[in-house]
Amino acid sequence: MTERLFEGADWDFHTLQRITDACEELAKNDLGLDVYPNQIEVITAEQMLDAYSSVGMPLFYKHWSFGKHFAFHEASYRKGLMGLAYEIVINSSPCISYLMEENTATMQTLVIAHAAFGHNHFFKNNYLFKQWTDADGILDYLDFAKNYVATCEERYGRVEVERTLDAAHALMSHGIYRYPGKKKLDLRAEEKRAGRRRQHEEEVFNDLWRTVPKGAAKSRSALSIERRRKLLGLPQENLLYFLEKSAPRLAPWQRELLRIVRHIAQYFYPQSQTKVMNEGTATYVHYRILSKLHEQGRISDGNFLEFLQSHTNVVFQPEFDDPRFSGFNPYALGFAMMQDIERIVTRPEDEDREWFPDIAGRNDVMGVLRDVWANYRDESFIGQFLSPKLMRHFRMFHLHDDPEERAGIRVDAIHDERGFRRVRRELARQHDVGFIDANIEVVDVDLSGDRRLILHHHVIKGSQLNETDAKRVLQHLADLWTYDVSLIEVDANDKVLREYVVSPRPIPAAA
Amino acid sequence: MAIHIIDRRLNPGGKSLENRQRFLRRAKSLVQGAVKKTSQDRDIKDVLEGGEVTIPLDGMHEPRFRREGGTRDMVLPGNKKFTEGDYLQRSGQGSAKNSGPGEGDSEDAFRFVLSRDEFVDLFLDDLELPDLAKRRIAQTESEGIQRAGYTTSGSPANISVSRTVQLALARRIALRRPRKSEIEELEAEIAACTDEDLRAELVEKLEMLKAKSKRIPFIDPLDIRYRRFETVPRPVAQAVMFCLMDVSGSMSEHMKDLAKRFYMLLYVFLKRRYKHVEIVFIRHTDRAEEVDEQTFFYGPASGGTLVSSALQAMYEIVRERFNPSDWNIYAAQASDGDNSYSDGELTGMLLTDKILPVCQFFAYIEVGESGGSAFDLSDSSLWTLYERLRNSGAPLSMRKVSERSEIFPVFHDLFQRRETAQEKAAP
Do residues A460 and A439 lie in contact, with contact meaning Cβ atoms separated by under 8 Å? Predict the structure, then answer.
């Protein structure tokens, strides 16, 4: 029998080292995970609260809103309304995991397997994280940001900096690129391309084209609008980027602050799109590793039961009529789907063969899962891999609530043969960030007139912006733009539903 | 692959302290309002304790574009009896549960805990407490211990190692005690030496050095120094505050509220200067009694008005319990100014002969009804009396207050330095 990793609940740093080594061996050899180097840090409850207030990052610039969040978390923690997370893990290289000192040895094992290997693998391999985040640079960047903000405060005054950051924070959710743009070419490549284009023109030159009649010439004003929109890169959904590049009266340091906030928002963007998958992956990994450790006799039965109890709590999914219900638990849904994929790959039924011909019976569980973890996000993952069996297991149903409908809320589809696909499509949609966030774009700037900035909100399914909040955010936007800003809410048929116009507040001192 | 395990628990805490301060600064007016409001409901003694305050979240709101309303679609788990095409009542659970609880977004008030220091700072922030009465505090003293250089005798616990070693070093250098390295060098030279004569010479020199180093000790009893302590007079760190109030029928709730506020400020103020503050409440009608705080402010009483009774009671309490040489005595009297005419002489005598000599500070606050400016009315009997006393040189501070908003300025005014306060005391 193999030696136990630990006995009872106590641990010391040697125990942690042994646990990590054991987990690493299983993660690499059994599961074939590919992770960033790990850094494990043990912290106290107070430090955990600290981390909470600065979105989990170990260093962050100073801002009052973080103090507010800290006070809020602290108050609810003290009252016992809120437990603290067992860990926080940071998408960086080395991958930093914070463990709470209060955890028992079993919990530390769970947490190390969960964060240091599960999340870590996901961060390193998922395409969204690869595309949008730079794990090697993030800590340095945060350090730069912190120092930059501090320097600005020294040089331009705390109030000024705070005003800019407030405005930037308000627009943070609209400071993101949702689609990777085209890469900027360097000069050499551009020259080459121009050469190729010229060559092509020479090759296909035909003087006859000159004689073909053209369509009606575009009017001068239409041309100038088109040209202006092109110059400003409109329409633009990344409001912070647009302001950073085009706001007429911002100081250079203000643009840099907007850029910092924008970069940080972009860094967190993949996390919001992969909650189910990320947690599902980590939970699946810790479950596999802990089970294996127990199988090998390296964890006692008692400790394994302790693990199972917390694991069960984590993946608990209350039903919709349960008072504890607050939406789908990403841990529960993610873990269930990962296990379901394992089942489909190893023990498929006829239904699975029909629904998942590609993976059913492939027998290479980890191969399939690693591929899934690398190439999907929540929306596509659910849309692709939620099986009928799982929908039956969760007894999912789809409600359609149309305020116009007098009879009430319609049950649109349930977990039956007719409803599977519709339920799945709808659940996938619920996890689509592009669908959840308001779709707001800068569409035009009245350059010849009063420089008014014009935004459109494309209303989906009649869901408009909350009025008070929208006005406040627009106020911030107008302050940065320094001229009037108007937001027009239009529905799918370009019908104007509502228009906001906000003027900038006067700047107290000439900035 | 190397795995780093780092213990961060020993890192300095309070990483978010600065953020917290920024938050408080930002929410200052809101928090200040909340603190004032909270302190209204508190007893005088609890006013200093920190505690939970609630501020409207609205002022600290971080706005975001949020969508609401419209047609909603949702997928939920746990279907038990629905089939496709069913209709649910809108008030039913299905829809009500779906609005996920946003973090704090839905709350309209924001509760959090202020530490004691933060609370007091905010409470006194717009007060600008004058650098009061330190001069006066120093009048009564007790003994304290203070370091005072070094001495050649003392208890072993007080040996000053650094000073002793320093002196020993100086002595060794002065007497040219051979250093260890010198002897070692010589020994090495002897070992390497081949010439017999030179060797004998060197050995002799070595003997001499060794003897010398034995003669001159490394540390001599002469070197030893002890830390010396001296007793010095220290200001007394305890104070007693007498609250005297007229509770006869003519005092309205509003007047009592004004008085309470003044006492509260005085208490907070004294608390910051002294370690230990006691409060004595004396209320009087035509006779005086010592009562607890609750009775003092809220207990009903009626009768005529004899101010001298309160002064007499205070004097007796001082004599019994608070020896003026051990205690800093502060007194604040609040009244609407009524006093029976025959009592004037006795009051004046008690005050000048017995009360004022033992007090650090005696303030008289004349409270009036809200709305009526205190200066329009003709002076009350008590005011006239006290003014006469003051004009003849008694150290009395007196003000008239009729509005809540006047409390802070009056308090501030009263607690200016004595020299200036005397000059501008006349209304």
Answer: yes
Three-class HEC string of chain B: CCCEEEECCCCCCCCCHHHHHHHHHHCHHHHHHHHHHHHHCCCHHHHHCCEEEEEEHHHHCCCCCCEECCCEEEEECCCCCCCCCCEECCCCHHHHCCCCCCCCCCCCEEEEEECHHHHHHHHHHHHCCCCCCHHHHCCCEEEEEEEEEEECCCCHHHECHHHHHHHHHHHHHHCCCCCHHHHHHHHHHHHHCCCHHHHHHHHHHHHHHHHHHHHCCCCCHHHCCEEEEEEEEEECCEEEEEEEEECCCCCCHHHHHHHHHHHHHHHHHHHHHCCEEEEEEEEECCCEEEECHHHHHHCCCCCCCCHHHHHHHHHHHHHHHCCCCCCEEEEEEEECCCCCHHHHHHHHHHHHHHHHHHCCEEEEEEECCCCCCCCCCCCCHHHHHHHHHHHCCCCCEEEEECCHHHHHHHHHHHCCCHHHHHHCCCC
How confident is the model over A385-437, as pLDDT tens digits?
A: 999 999 999 999 998 888 887 788 888 888 888 889 999 999 998 888 877 88
Instruction: Calculate mean pLDDT across residues A159-183.
Output: 83
CA distance B222 to chain A (A): 52
Is the ipTM higher than 0.85? The answer is no
- Mean pLDDT for B16-37 is 76
A320/B9 CB distance under 8 A: no
- CB distance B71–A414 less than 8 Å? no
Please check whether residue A400 touches B, CB under 8 A: yes
Residue of A319, A390, A412 lying closest to B74 (CA atoms): A412
Which among B64, B76, B103 is the nearest to A320, CB-wise?
Answer: B76
A144 touches chain B (CB under 8 A): no
Residue A208 gets which letter from DSSP? G
A20-52 pLDDT tens trace:
999 999 999 989 999 999 999 888 888 888 887
Summarize pLDDT for A121-144 with one digit per residue, the tens: 999 999 989 888 888 888 889 889
Range name among A253-267, B108-122, B194-208, B219-233 with the lowest pLDDT average: B108-122
Is A37 touching B (CB cutoff 8 A)? Answer: yes
Share of chain A above pLDDT 90, in %: 30
Question: How high is the pLDDT of residue A467?
Answer: 86
pTM score of the predicted model? 0.68
Q: Which of A44, A50, A414 is nearest residue B82 as measured by Cβ atoms?
A: A414
Contact A470 B95 (CB under 8 A): no
Q: Residue A321: which of B71, B78, B89 has the nearest Cβ? A: B78
Question: Nearest to residue B365, comparing CAs of B265, B258, B289?
Answer: B258
How many residues are there in chain B? 427
What is d(CA B82, CA B76) in angstroms, rounded to the nearest whole number? Answer: 12
Q: How many helices (H) and strands (E) does chain A have?
A: 22, 10
State residue B421's pLDDT score. 39
Q: Is the pLDDT of residue A170 over 60?
A: yes
Query: How far is the alpha carbon of B66 from chain A, nearest alpha carbon, in Å?
Result: 5
Summarised one tens digit per residue, pLDDT across range B216-250 is: 888 888 889 999 888 776 665 677 888 888 877 77
Chain A residues whose beta carbon lies within 8 Å of the beta carbon of residue B58 = none
Q: How far apart are CA A286 and CA B384, in angstroms?
A: 85
Residues 187-226 of chain A with CB under 8 A from chain B are none
In which band, very low, low, confident or very high, does the pLDDT at B64 lie, cut at 50, 70 and 90?
Answer: confident
Say yes or no for a CB contact (<8 Å) between A41 and B76: no
> If you average pLDDT over each of A458-472, B134-148, B377-391, which comes out highest?
A458-472
Q: B25, B26, B58, B79: best mutation site toward chain A, by most A Cβ within 10 Å?
A: B79
